[in-house]
Each structure stands twice: as C-alpha cells, then as structure tokens.
C-alpha cells in the first residue's frame, strides 16, 4: 500500500509507470499457483476474460504446466496467436483449440514431440487466416513437419463429378493453408525446401530479419521473437521462475469405462460394432449412388421409349402454345 496524500502530480505519474496493474498482480498470483487449478480449470476458465486466458496459457507454458486440460479449457474464439512450443500437448487438445479459435493467424507448435500431422491438418482446416506457422526444433517435430507438407500446401479439390446441380454438394473449392505466408522451420531439409519452393513459392521459409526487410517480415515470423512474449509485459517474471512438469491426465471415469469395455466385449461383438459403424458411415454414399442410378435410368428410358418421347414433346408443345397465347 502506498501513501500518496502529499505526492505531487509528477510523482504519481512516475509511480503509476512502475507499478503493475491490479489485474496483472492477480494473474501473477494465479500463475504461481496454477498447478492447483488444473483439476478444476473447466469450471474456472469460463469466468476469465480472453486476455487473462492468454496470459495464463503463456505462464503455464513457461512453467512446464501446459497440458491438454489447460489448452482445451483456456482456448478462446477471439485469439489470433497461439504458442504451445515446447509443451506436452497432444493432437486432441490442439484440434479442440483449432476448432475453438478460427481467427488464429500466428501459431507456434515447435518442439512439441507429441503432435502428429493430424494436428497440423486440423489447424489448416479450421484456421483459414493462418499466415505464420512455426514448427520443427527437435528430430521428432521435424519429422512431423515433413509429413505435414501435403496438408500445408494449397491445392484444388478434385470432387466426384455429379449428374445434376441438385446433387452437387457445397464443398470448398480449395484446401490447404491458403493464407500461409511465413514458415519458420530451422531444421528444414533440402527436399522439403525444394518442394515448398516449387509448389508454393509464396511461402517464405525462415525469413531473415534485417534493415532491408524491416516492415516486411512480421514480428511473428522472426525466429528470435517469442510469440506470446507481449502477453506478459506487465507480469512479474518471478511468476514462472518455478518450473514444474505435469503429466497429461485423462478423467478417471473415462479411463476406467474404456478399460471395462475392452475387457467385456468379445471378438464377435467388436466385429459387429465395426460393421455397424462402417454401414452407418457408407449409408449417405449408397443413397447418393441410388439417386444417380435412378436419374440415369430415367434418362435411358426417355431416350429409348417412343411413347415417353411423345409425352415429353407434347408437354413442350403445350407450354409453347400457352406462351404464344399470352
């Protein structure tokens, strides 16, 4: 508590510049005790504003506490950046984050050894504004980045040709990272670099920041810049001084239920459930093929049956006569 009764205006301004805000002090206190909040984060997170969620996620990453529970619970649909580098997050939570945060523009998934190309594909599909992607950093992460190139490269969809406009499904014309411009991948191999340069020269790989590129290369694409650093400008660095590793946990009920089902189901029941799931998955395709076959049969009947042709031409003639009468 400061006594400001006899302070001048200049002194008050100086003290305000060097004193942290009440929000920052509260966030710092929560960050110091973040490991005690993980179990109840699902109930607590909805009460936090979006910028507080971002600060807590950045603190958790620095403390080694960033896990699936925190990422899935703190993700907010207003976020434009996401930095999970060096954490233990898996595909499950990153897919949830991509679905929750469709406005993401800058993402750092470097040194995340538990991620697979499935997570990268989800980012590309659900975040159309993605412009900067940081990946690699470890042998495992480099391998994932290499396998994810096919998901990153923009390309046109090759959909099955339909017989009529009514049956044409509304699908995106293109897929891949349409807005991606900057790719930060320090350990990129020669083959991957050549493939990216040939198929999508628009993507700049490992941009070099200098006075010539000042104002051209964004802050998020500069390797030396920590992506979420600006979120903690007003937070005491002592908040993340203690690093604690927390293992990724699944709900106990879900784990026990899954184990019980695995033990109870017989081989025949597993085959039956797999067949039912496959049948349900292919049902829309069968209905679509049936409609196509019906339309083709109707066209063939009209082209081969003389009586059907006469009915069709008679109908066309009647419509023409009505139009002339009008």
TrEMBL record:
<dbReference type="GO" id="GO:0031146">
    <property type="term" value="P:SCF-dependent proteasomal ubiquitin-dependent protein catabolic process"/>
</dbReference>
<dbReference type="GO" id="GO:0019005">
    <property type="term" value="C:SCF ubiquitin ligase complex"/>
</dbReference>
<dbReference type="InterPro" id="IPR032675">
    <property type="entry name" value="LRR_dom_sf"/>
</dbReference>
<protein>
    <submittedName>
        <fullName>Uncharacterized protein</fullName>
    </submittedName>
</protein>
<dbReference type="InterPro" id="IPR006553">
    <property type="entry name" value="Leu-rich_rpt_Cys-con_subtyp"/>
</dbReference>
């Amino acid at each position: 508590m400061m006594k400001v009764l006899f302070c001048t205006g200049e002194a008050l301004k100086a003290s305000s510049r060097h004193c942290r805000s009440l929000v920052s002090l509260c966030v710092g206190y929560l960050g110091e005790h973040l490991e005690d909040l993980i179990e109840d984060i699902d109930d607590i997170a909805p009460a936090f504003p979006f910028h507080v969620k971002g600060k807590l996620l950045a603190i958790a990453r620095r403390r080694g506490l960033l896990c699936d529970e925190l990422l899935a619970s703190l993700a907010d649909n207003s976020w434009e950046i996401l930095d999970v580098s060096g954490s233990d997050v898996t595909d499950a939570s990153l897919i949830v984050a991509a679905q929750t945060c469709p406005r993401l523009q800058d993402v750092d998934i470097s040194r995340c050894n538990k991620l697979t190309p499935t997570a990268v594909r989800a980012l590309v599909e659900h975040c159309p504004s993605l412009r900067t992607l940081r990946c690699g950093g470890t042998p495992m992460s480099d391998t994932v980045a290499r396998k994810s190139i096919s998901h990153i490269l923009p390309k046109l969809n090759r959909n099955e040709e339909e017989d009529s406009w009514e049956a044409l499904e509304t699908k995106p014309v293109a897929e891949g990272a349409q807005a991606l411009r900057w790719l930060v991948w320090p350990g990129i191999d020669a083959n991957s670099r050549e493939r990216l340069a040939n198929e999508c020269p628009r993507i700049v790989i490992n941009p070099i920041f200098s006075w010539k590129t000042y104002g051209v290369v964004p802050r998020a694409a500069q390797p030396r810049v920590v992506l979420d650093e600006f979120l903690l400008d007003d937070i005491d660095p002592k908040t993340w001084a203690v690093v604690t590793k927390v293992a990724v946990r699944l709900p106990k009920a879900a784990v026990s239920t899954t184990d019980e089902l695995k033990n109870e189901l017989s081989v025949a029941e597993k085959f039956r459930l797999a067949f039912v799931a496959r049948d349900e998955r292919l049902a829309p395709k069968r209905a679509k093929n049936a409609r196509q076959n019906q339309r083709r049969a109707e066209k063939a009947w009209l082209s081969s049956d003389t009586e059907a042709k006469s009915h069709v031409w008679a109908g066309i003639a009647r419509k023409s006569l009505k139009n002339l009468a009008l």
